[in-house]
Amino acid sequence: MTTNADTRPLRIAMKRYATNEALLNGTLTSPKVDLSFDEVEPIHNAFKPMAQRQVYDLSEMAVFTFLQSYIYEKPIILLPVVLASRHQHGCIIFNTQFHDTLTPADLPGKRIGVRSYTQTTGAWVRNILMREHGLKLDAVEWVVTEGGHLAEYSDPPFVKRASGKLIDMLTNGEVDAAILGNDLPSDPRFRPVIPNAAAAGPAWHKATGLIPINHMFVATKALADSRPDLVRETYDLIRRAKEAAAPSTTSDMRPIGIDAIRPSLELVIELAAEQQIIPRRLTVDELLAPWREVVRKAT
To answer: Tell me: the pLDDT tens digits for 265-278?
Structure first.
């Protein structure tokens, strides 16, 4: 193991959460590593440059962006840390000015807008519609306003590109429903497509014990190879920050450690393959093999 407290600051892209507040506000530090945080807003703007050019040393990243990065052999490695997750049932909405009601059973033949086909929230909502409501993936026209984060990837043929803002398209009736995440509006004209959405998400989590993972944490392969001790120490700081946070339903949805994330990550891989986000099924062990090597070298 190599140690050197006198090293350059590591540049990290990370959104501020209750579970990492102690780390970002400087309450929690380590003499072994110097961290420089870049709170990119919105955080998804950090994923493309990290995946394509590795502009940070470590970064929060959407789990589906990482899966594609792994497929396309980008030099980044996954750490067993869930930084963001949420109940997704309420994230698909419709405009009551154009539809008195709209349920999952009404969606075949409709146009559904989502920022990007590979967006994590969109993938989780499609999973809900397919598995819980029997929707066929190609039974609707998926309308996107952005491409994915990996230039090598092409959207499936049932995905159409449109210009403009997604919320405007829903407001104007250009799409029948739209999937939104952190930008979900509180406008009373918009209602969830999925019945009892507020209760459905927690009920699914309670019944399955699974986490609808949005964002995880990655490091460049260069840093992992040259300074595994710094990668391991950063991981330990994130773990300690989570432990210092007040317990809540939200913090419980952000697990850390291979055993804690394995079942949920297995589902992520399965639905990514089903939805043509990745061309083949991967295993959790192959995704985390580089992390295991970091731990071995840093011990």
So the answer is: 999 999 999 999 99
Alpha-carbon gap, residue 269 to 261, rounded angstroms: 12
Domains, the chain, ordered by start: 10-86+212-298 (3.40.190.10), 89-207 (3.40.190.10)
Predicted confidence (pLDDT) per residue in 176-206, tens digit: 999 998 889 999 999 999 999 999 999 999 9
CB 243 within 8 A of CB 250: no
From CA 45, how far away is CA 50, in angstroms rounded? 9
Q: What is the mean pLDDT of the chain?
A: 95
Looking at the chain, the whole-number percentage of residues with pLDDT higher than 70 is 98
- Give me the pLDDT at residue 267, please: 97
